[in-house]
Amino acid sequence: MAPNKAAAEEYPVDIVDLSDDFKSSKTLDLVLDEEHKVYRYWIHLKCMKWQIELRANSFECFAAYFKTPATWSAEVEFEIRAHVTNSVRSEKFTGRYTGSNHVYFRPLKLQDHMVREKLRSMRVEITVNVIKTMNFGMLYDYFDVLPEEENALLKVEDRLIRVNKRYLSMMSPFFKALFYGELGEDKEIYEMKEKFREIITFLRCIYPHRQPVTKKSLDYLLQLADRYQCQPIVDACEMFMCAHYHEYQKKTEKCFSYVEKYKMQRVLRIIVEYVAVTQSPAQFRLQSYYRDLSEKTQLAVLDYMAKNQSRRGKELERRRGVNSHRANIDPIDDQDPPNGRLLGIADPLRNADPRPPQPGYNVPRYGNFRPLVFGHH
């Protein structure tokens, strides 16, 4: 990575307020100088993730959310205010996004102002305002109906996160006991010994905008969900694994550990189907993780293997019957009803006429056909 190229990170604030993710506008205060020539930050507006990239000669905004429908569209208004000496140069423009266009680019002339005024640094304020969105994003502020007196602060790695106590209490018995029960007192700041990146992702998955689960966040989200008794997060992780079953069904040992610890019945069905196809019962019993499984899981796998083997046996018998029936039908004699009197029949026993002969007719097995007529000599 180039030394002057900053990595994308969340815009730093003193207190991370999750209710601000539902807002439609936000202002970023940046300073361009020799050490900071490029800024890359991402913010949440209308519960959507937007990545802002600012240079002295260009501005770029990327709708960085994970899965948007093809009919998604948004209209975003930008205002850039550059503080040049004793004046402020302001510029407004509008970016339009659709399902096929997630990037908006705008050339700027901030570098020209810095050269003209002989400035070593320039303060730049960027206001991003989402005017309207269609078919994606949160349309209203969910926490307007909840009183501000219900807010509390979580202290994680010396950083503060403002959350709503009532909403977290509905999602988790742990938070209900922490805020209103015997685990904690009625105070403004609650300290948590977690990593900030993990706990902020965990909270955004709980909150109504439902930040999607990813491969990187799956493991620690399950650990936090188990620690804080949050079943909605376990369900979200399970649905993510089911949606990506072609990747996770091959990680048999890991998925069985998830099934045993978090009681994932949907994942169990997927893993059982994969194991039943790729292993025999004897091979399954020899696996290193077999003894770590509960008796219920072992019986579920072996029972499905038996049913699958019986089903495969019946399917093979059915196919053998179909194939043998097709092999016994000569393509020349594939008529209704089949008979052995057509030319070109090599095996009259195989192509014998199933109908009994009419009285008065002698049907020889070999040779030419000669009808016998009964009458006076």
Automatic annotation (TrEMBL):
Sequence ranges assigned to domain BTB in this UniProt record: 150-215
Pfam families listed in its UniProt record: BTB
Matching InterPro entries: BTB/POZ_dom, SKP1/BTB/POZ_sf
Domain of life according to the entry: Eukaryota
Residue numbers spanned by region Disordered: 312-364
Listed PANTHER family: BTB DOMAIN-CONTAINING PROTEIN (PTHR22744:SF4), HELIX LOOP HELIX PROTEIN 21-RELATED (PTHR22744)
Protein name (Swiss-Prot/TrEMBL): BTB domain-containing protein
Species of the source: Caenorhabditis elegans
